[in-house]
Amino acid sequence: MRKLINAPEDVVSDALRGMAAAHPSLRVDAATGVVVRADAPRRGKVALVSGGGSGHEPLHAGFVGPGMLDAACAGEVFTSPTPDRILAATMAVDGGAGVLHVVKNYTGDVLNFRLAAELAEDEGIEVAAVVVADDVAVEDSTYTAGRRGTGGTLFVEKIAGAAAEAGAPLAEVAAVAADVAGRCRSFGVALAPCTVPAAGTPTFELAADEIELGIGIHGEPGRERAKARPAAEIVDAALTAIDDDLPVAGQDVLVLVNGMGGTPLLEQYIAYAAAAGGLAARGATVVRSLVGPYVTSLEMAGLMITVCRTSGALTGLWDAPADTPALRAGAR
Amino acid sequence: MRKLINAPEDVVSDALRGMAAAHPSLRVDAATGVVVRADAPRRGKVALVSGGGSGHEPLHAGFVGPGMLDAACAGEVFTSPTPDRILAATMAVDGGAGVLHVVKNYTGDVLNFRLAAELAEDEGIEVAAVVVADDVAVEDSTYTAGRRGTGGTLFVEKIAGAAAEAGAPLAEVAAVAADVAGRCRSFGVALAPCTVPAAGTPTFELAADEIELGIGIHGEPGRERAKARPAAEIVDAALTAIDDDLPVAGQDVLVLVNGMGGTPLLEQYIAYAAAAGGLAARGATVVRSLVGPYVTSLEMAGLMITVCRTSGALTGLWDAPADTPALRAGAR
């Protein structure tokens, strides 16, 4: 296991100490995994809280800041944060206008966020939740009932975060988040697996000439093990899966071409060239794009494509200022 | 070879087509590898041009935009761009105030930029150059006479780019660039090699329990092959090499903890926690930091640390607005 770590049991807390040192704009509790905007709570603003297992960085803590999340909860690698920590994050950022939980659809996350929401409501905090389930690859999977939540989460956090920053009330922020979640579809492909530090062995095995189409962000199985093929064909398979599920013809779309953690940016741009061409060929108009490692799976090699059917209003929220460690947007 | 590519010979042009599609703020010639600010030439502004072999993305094309580079020239993977292309970039961005070439110290780059500068001067364009040679690991190497240029290049491009954007004349921009280059020191460590697509085999081999201390950004040999060790010890070795060369005690420093392309962000933050502690223990004050994959070596696993002894004026230029695909800075 070639990893730049100290000890497997310290991976998450060590990384959080690094985040704390690197980002004065964040308040980081490395012991509990709770990362909060330094200026929280913001009086009268709806707060957004997300979280999940670690190993997907910069998701979620890298998206904490003005215009996106107010707090993120980091669990151990690929392990949901516990309800008490989600509750602590929720209480730390509540500014009296309620809190939106942005939850990726994994059984542990859904359960723990629900428990935390109940506990928060006992404390008098109004909580709404959106569950993101954008991955079209499989209907149920190792860790989910229903579809997995992946890259669409970034779009929900950015766009609903902008709505909250603009002063929208909780019901409206939650409605925007649900709307965006419903408009996003994702599909991932692995070229090489990742290794959870505490396990020490790869989450799956691929032969030298194999890829996994429809992989999940924890290395959980996808649709099919297939022969390696050119990037353009891999991208085409991803776009076909997305388009079959939610047609893109005639639509304005936001697109994320996302490296899974071990894929060079050079290759991500090669994939984006194919994605831009493939979407145009399917009749979609790409109005905004993002290329980079935003929702990762440790050092997994591969990519994920997320397409969000947008509207003028949603694109406006996408363009609104955001200032987080991993994503900055807006005019300057 | 597990790569998200179409054909080895198309890697650079395909990636540049992706950049062109993703970034309307850039004018990209995928055939020649010349990437230019869409609003170039800027009348009366000193222009910055950099470039080098591909495979180090986002360096350099990802740093083209207001506040940093006016143009970048991409060669084939790990291969210098030819003089005619550097000349084309230089002519495309000259706004009458002269052009600064930012050159990493590799023999091919130095030669080709020098030839391009002579050709540009024949065209009546005033050219100055700064050669970045910040890597303390080795004095001469496979591809260099003298030290290699690595992460310090980012600091030169950002800070000199800010000086140019603020209207400084060529001599002053060149002086700032030379000053910054002289203040930067870097040291890299590889945990796993990379594979150049056209070669198809790794640039070097490491046993499962080995790392390479002082690695170059093309996989060229470093100081020593050593046993794998905890991240804190790897970072300590890098900081010791840097501090031995240019002491940091009592200094304000800018720090880059840079993933080499195949190292997850989680691990980069673990390294940053160690770097922040190690610099403080050595008496330095970290005034700004950057954590992420900014100067990469394809999918190499490992990290590079760059330390820049700064001043109030240089920190001000570091903080100045920049708006490039890979680095955005400044108030918004």
Characterise the protein shown here.
2 copies of one chain form a homodimer. Chain A has 332 residues and is α/β, with parallel strands linked by helices. Chain A is built from 8 helices and 14 strands. Chain A has 2 domains: 11-182, Rossmann fold (3-Layer(aba) Sandwich); 183-329, Dihydroxyacetone kinase, domain 2 (Hypothetical Protein Tm841, Chain: A,domain 3, 2-Layer Sandwich). The first copy, chain A, has helices at 11-22, 83-93, 107-122, 152-165, 170-183, 231-245, 265-281, 312-319, and strands at 26-29, 34-37, 47-54, 71-77, 99-104, 127-132, 184-192, 210-213, 224-227, 252-259, 285-292, 301-309, 322-323, 328-329. In chain A, strands 1-2-4-3-5-6 form a 6-stranded mixed sheet, sandwiched between helices. Chain A has a 6-stranded mixed sheet with strand order 9-8-7-12-10-11. In chain A, helix 3 (107-122) links the parallel strand 5 (99-104) and strand 6. The termini of chain A are far apart. The model of chain A has no long low-confidence stretch (mean pLDDT 96). Chains A and B meet through helix 1, helix 6, helix 7, strand 11 and strand 12 of A and helix 1, helix 6, helix 7, strand 11 and strand 12 of B.
